[in-house]
């Protein structure tokens, strides 16, 4: 197995990269587009858990872990543009670069990556064959994000000046392990500012601006088969975010599964618990069923 890093896009002075993990063989393989979390504010393509990456490779998939421009230096519409462009690059350049099968592409993401995975179900064309969202979310304008969060407000309040120092002006697509950016995220959650800071829109005065960026509002019968996984003790992304996605998928007649991890928190898949292990086996089975 091998890893190659490519620049899949350049936006202004910002190179945006993807790490491609594949078996050392020449036959076309189905592709998993792995999308990192970090509230769209932090994280990078390097956050792919090695044990999960190995399991995907052993199951016969090529894994493409993508970066995308980060907020607040870049607003959400441009982040979604990066998402579209990454899929386009995989389908157009992937067959020659790493033997990608452009007809078999799925998205897998965690937290904000789960959100982008769900976005890919309607904003990417052609649509992915399947989606797997680990503790993702379908509504970015709801009170859980647009109002002060009780859980995060238990921590000492982050002063605005400190929050602003944690981010900059220049476009970035990899936080390079800069933990200071977490302080900006905490500031946003404590004041209910995340939708404004990330999207550039105000959910109170411009609610219609969020419609194109809320997966739960864009489910149609041709939405891809979807697997949702969420712990019911998640203190970062409410469990209800996957509940409402599952309800929307059911109403539209979309094939889907919803796995609840009882007592599971945010990032439950890193716990090594029997429940988490069983859930990951189900992920592999779901992907095999839809990608072959």
Could you walk me through the main structural features you see in this protein, from its secondary elements to its overall organization?
This protein is α/β, with parallel strands linked by helices and 292 residues long. It has a single domain, classed as Rossmann fold (3-Layer(aba) Sandwich). It is built from 9 helices and 8 strands. The chain has helices at 50-58, 76-98, 112-123, 143-146, 160-165, 180-191, 194-199, 240-252, 274-291, and strands at 2-11, 14-22, 29-35, 62-66, 100-110, 130-134, 226-231, 256-261. The chain has an 8-stranded mixed beta sheet with strand order 1-2-4-3-5-6-7-8, with helices on both faces.
Gist of the model:
With 292 residues, this protein is of the alpha/beta class. The protein has helices at residues 50-58, 76-98, 112-123, 143-146, 160-165, 180-191, 194-199, 240-252, 274-291; strands spanning 2-11, 14-22, 29-35, 62-66, 100-110, 130-134, 226-231, 256-261. The chain has a single domain (2-140, 216-291), classed as Rossmann fold (3-Layer(aba) Sandwich).
Structural features:
292 residues; alpha/beta; Rossmann fold; eight-stranded mixed beta sheet; globular
């Amino acid at each position: 197995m091998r890893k190659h890093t490519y620049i899949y896009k350049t936006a202004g002075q910002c190179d945006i990269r993807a790490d491609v993990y594949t078996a050392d063989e020449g036959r076309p393989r189905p592709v998993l587009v792995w999308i990192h979390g970090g509230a769209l504010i932090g994280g990078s393509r390097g956050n792919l858990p090695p044990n999960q990456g190995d399991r995907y490779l052993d199951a016969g998939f090529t894994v493409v872990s993508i970066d995308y421009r980060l907020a607040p230096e870049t607003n959400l519409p441009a982040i979604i543009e990066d998402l579209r462009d990454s899929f386009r690059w995989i389908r157009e350049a992937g067959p020659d670069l790493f033997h990608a099968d452009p007809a078999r592409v799925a998205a897998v993401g965690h937290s904000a990556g789960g959100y982008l995975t769900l976005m890919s179900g309607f904003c990417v064309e052609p649509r992915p064959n399947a989606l797997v969202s680990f503790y993702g979310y379908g509504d970015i304008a709801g009170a859980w994000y647009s109002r002060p969060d009780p859980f995060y407000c238990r921590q000492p309040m982050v002063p605005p000046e400190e929050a602003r120092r944690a981010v900059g002006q220049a476009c970035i697509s990899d936080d390079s392990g800069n933990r200071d950016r977490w302080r900006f995220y905490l500031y946003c959650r404590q004041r209910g500012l995340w939708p404004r800071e990330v999207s550039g829109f105000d959910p109170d005065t411009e609610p219609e601006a969020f419609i194109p960026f809320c997966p739960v509002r864009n489910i149609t019968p041709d939405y891809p088969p979807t697997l949702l996984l969420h712990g019911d003790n998640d203190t970062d992304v409410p469990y209800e975010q996957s509940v409402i996605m599952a309800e929307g998928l059911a109403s539209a007649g979309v094939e889907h599964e919803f796995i609840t991890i009882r007592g599971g928190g945010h990032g439950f898949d890193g716990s090594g618990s029997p429940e988490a292990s069983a859930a990951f086996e189900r992920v592999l089975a779901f992907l095999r069923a839809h990608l072959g």
